[in-house]
Amino acid sequence: MPKILFSQFANIELIVEGGNPRGGAAVQTLVWMHAFNKLGFDIQQVIYETETRPKKKEFDWVETITVYNPNVKRIRSWYTYKLPAYFKTLKTAKCDYVYSSIPKWYFFYINIFCKILGIKHIIRIPSDEMVDKRIFLTESKIDNFYIQKSFATADLILAQNEYQFVNLKRKFPKQQIVKIYNPTIINEEFLKIKTELQGHIAWIANFRHRKNMALLLKIAELLPKENFMIAGVPLLPLDEETEDSVENLRKLKNVTFLGNVGREDILGFLSKAKFLLSTARYEGFSNTFLEAMCTGTPVLTTHTANPDELINRYELGYVYENENEICSIIENLTMEKYLTWSKNCIAYVKENHDYKYLGNKLMNQIKCL
């Protein structure tokens, strides 16, 4: 059977007992793992030498592959220790493919290793800022230089939406680049159209600047009769705006902080929600949107977090410009319109995002590499 190695260390947090909360890239990657496992691939996941936590029983099909000890201190440790360890790992793992979900500067070297060993390297773009000038918000100039080199030499790049695809194709016209939406595992137990316009307004994300909790605060203040439930934890260190917003949100009587909601509980949480609210400044393709749709829960999102305009194009909820507009929509929404949104969510996610369907689509693509 073909082997695929998942290279992001953070993925393990969703696989082991007592794992720490992770962002959307790890959540999305876990679904791809499930998809490839269903398609008959052997699944490998990198870990640090210091990893001792046991895997959850439901992930006994994931083989963990030790790479290096992150605590080892050496002069120029990436070149004298970590990268050589990575090469050795790829050689002994005998994988056919490497899947990487968050581009890093050293992927340029991973590409070289893969070409030497006859392995195909697939890089997934996690968010829109990775393909435009916003990359400098998180990456240095030298890191960005090597990330661009890694894009130019990867065997396949996976874009989440049209914006990513167009920008990448403009920069790398000869590269193999494919747009493929995020997959999700559809649970028939929760795949139900809403029957009533009631429940809480769910907000799900780890707390950081790009999620715009300042806007969430404004909306919650304008809708004191609505119950807002916030699922997530701070990503430290917090920026000042997010820290102030969280502090003020905690003072509101209509806001409840739930902390981290586990993967096994997320659909139940969303099924009881009236809406999923996004206040994000930008998104690549939100896994949480798909999870909400899997429960028939409409999505309310900003115009900057509406990949390929899917929310308004398929009538899966509402795309708003500011806090006043969304408050007006919530207060004046008819039952008929709400049920239409809910029905559309179910139909759309079943037709376009089933993990086995998209897994087959991606498998057929990588077989051609």
TrEMBL record:
Residues 201-324 form the Glycosyl transferase family domain. Gene3D superfamilies: Glycogen Phosphorylase B (3.40.50.2000). Keywords: Transferase. It comes from the Bacteria. CDD domains: GT4_PimA-like. InterPro entries: Glyco_trans_1 (IPR001296). GO terms for molecular function: glycosyltransferase activity. This is Glycosyltransferase involved in cell wall bisynthesis.
